[in-house]
Amino acid sequence: MSPDLNLPVGLFDSGIGGLTVLHALRRRLPRENLLYLGDTARLPYGTKARDTIIRYSQRATQKLVECGVKMLVIACNTATSAALPTLRRQFAPLPVMGVVEPGAEAAVAASRNRRIVITATEATIAGGAYQEAIRRRCPDATVIGRACTLFVSLAEEGWTDGPIAEGVAARYLRDLFADGPERPDTLLLGCTHFPLFKDALRHVVGPDVHIVDSAATTAQAVETELRRLGLLRQAEEDGTSRFLVTDNVARFMRSGGYFLGEAPREDAVALVDL
Ligand code: DGL
Questions:
Q1: 5 CA to middle of ligand 1, Å?
Q2: 239: left (phi over 0), alpha (psi -120 to 50) or beta
Q3: Do strands 34-38 and 9-13 pair parallel, antiparallel, or not at all (unpaired)?
Q4: pTM exceeds 0.85 for this model
Q5: Residue 73 lies inside a defined structural domain of this protein
Q6: Predicted local distance difference test score (pLDDT) of residue 1
């Protein structure tokens, strides 16, 4: 039996960062209903062990499946790198998409000299999923991973530009972008929070480096997959966005505003337990 096309696309993230993916989906697929789960009680995932991240991701997915979704998007780089194969197996035949493959695809398409830097959380860099996805597409690529942990807290505080953000970006990345023949030409933002730092990062890497983020390319990949599976919603009116969070609704609303441009509507956010 084919699923109800009015069912939402479910997205989950460790907290608020995945709102960058929701935002991109909203723009690309305005007719779709979206249900976002932010696991704010367990945030951050990026410093946790792989098994823990997988366990948390299974619980988040289970909750969305109970609510009823026609597709799952893992809107978190850390969870995608650790848990995508497990979730695909466990929740089949639900279509499950992550952010790593679309991000890797975009980075490879952007790079001319095949020298690519990935910035992400510790767990994403250590897991190696991005490095593997890039090398699969471009075996002779030089791929350098750099964990930029502090960006996560800065983004949630709304400190994404100015001297503090630029100083942190420089401390993490300046050495990798020093002038010379080895200089990478592409910086892949492999964490949901990092697109907010585009200006600060641009300041550090210079005007000639391609800064690629996976949110927009993931939205494109989700559209392609929904179309391929015949799951696109057929409706005249725009879809809705609803939010489930596992802790502190007020903080989610406040920090969420930095990611979405405006805070989610209060009546669209509910507290849940996993
Ligand atoms: N959402 C996470 C990611 O994209 C960043 C925040 C966290 O560490 O949980 O990797």
A1: 29
A2: beta
A3: parallel
A4: yes
A5: yes
A6: 63
CB 7 within 8 A of CB 69: yes
Give kind and range of the element (H or E) at residue 80.
Answer: helix 77-91
Long-range contacts (CB closer than 8 Å, 24 or more residues apart) made by 203-208: 203/166, 203/169, 203/170, 204/166, 204/169, 204/170, 204/173, 204/174, 204/177, 205/173, 205/177, 206/177
- Find the residues whose C-beta lies inside 6 A of ligand 1: 13-15, 17, 43-46, 76-78, 121, 124, 152, 191-193
Helix 19-28 vs helix 214-228: crossing angle, to nearest 10: 50
| Neighbouring C-beta atoms of residue 270, cutoff 10 Å | 10
Mean pLDDT of 214-228: 94
Q: Residue 24's pLDDT is what?
A: 94
Question: Residue 81: which domain range?
Answer: 9-98+216-271
What number is the average pLDDT over the span 117-142?
A: 96
- pLDDT given at position 255: 86
Q: Indicate the pairing of strand 34-38 with strand 241-245.
A: parallel
* 4 within domain boundaries: no
Q: Compute and round to an integer the Cα radius of gyration of the chain.
A: 18
CATH code for the domain of 222:
3.40.50.1860
